[in-house]
Amino acid sequence: MQNQFTLDCNDLSEQKIEGILKFIRKHSQNEKMMLLGYGSTYKVMKQYLMTHHNIHPIKLAGVVSGSDMLFDDVRDSIEHLFKCRCYSRYSNEENGILAQDDKENNVFIINEANYYIEVFKLDTDELAEVGEIGRIVVTDLYNYAMPMIRYDTGDIGRISYRIDRNGKKKRVIDQFSGRKVDIIYTESGDIISPHSITNLMWNYPSLNQFQFVQLGRGVYKLILNVKKDIIDEEKMINELKSIVGKTAKITIEYVDEIPVLRSGKRRYIVNEWQK
Fold first, then answer.
1. Cα→Cα distances 41→35, 152, 158, 235, 254, Å
2. Angle CA(147)–CA(152)–CA(150) in degrees, nearest 5?
């Protein structure tokens, strides 16, 4: 009745991606269809595009990514494939759509009509300063059945005033860093943005999946699912050490598949060490 189609994305093999694209092409003839999906699903589509260069572009009205981070290289590929702007939104199951980016990638304009969003310090229940990275806390203004007052989402980011709309500065969430548990530290104890690791992995197109795990102070494990190509381990470890520390201990483990969470998301950065 609402012209919605649900696509099963548990299987993201090349054959399955090909079938998904055929389905989208079939149902987007009037160019009024839009697509909503996981950022990680779009990432697999991007990898498919890298090996199938002759795909005929599909015209959509728009593409929206949610649930996990949409990285710039994935966004560029999706916009090229579907010939439209691709937006990323910040939402959760408990509340709804909290914010969405617009002209700047991953700079999320806050939905202030429905929520009051604050950022608390990482380790105390005190308000962070404007521009300070901390825990994102949400008060839902319209959830009368289950009031949620200063609900700690478990996500990390900062609030700033960097978007100008009609002469007014809009509150935005940027420096979004995912779950608090996914924050990792250098060997000297400094916080690292998870994206510094993810951006590095863009340089290795033979990677199907990766997961970077912090096991202790200066101790890390890199789990890789790769294609037939050989990874230059020495080069990769040296590049990682430039981020986490020159004397860090990094081991590499190869697997056939990195499992997803019950939510269907896959964790790229994991911290198993309590700082």
1. 12, 27, 26, 28, 22
2. 45
The residue count of the chain comes to 275
The more confident residue out of 215 and 132 is 215
For residues 69 and 85, what is the distance between their CA atoms, to the nearest angstrom? 16
Helix H or strand E encompassing 224: strand 219-226
DSSP tag of 127: B
Q: Could you tell me the two tokens for 180? A: 């608090």
pLDDT above 70 covers what percent of the chain? Answer: 92
**Pairing mode, strands 207-216 and 269-271:** parallel
Q: Give the tokens for residue 265.
A: 């998301």
pTM of the model: 0.67
Q: What is the DSSP letter of 54?
A: T
Cα distance between residue 229 and residue 187, in whole Å = 31
Sign of CA dihedral 164, 166, 171, 176: negative
Q: What is the pLDDT of residue 216?
A: 94
Which positions ≥6 away from 265 have C-beta within 8 Å? Answer: 38, 40, 67, 68
Tokens of 29: 């003839």
Task: Tell me how far apart the alpha carbons of residues 3 and 33 are, in angstroms, rounded to a whole number.
Answer: 9
Angle value at C-alpha 234, between 232 and 240, nearest 5 degrees: 105
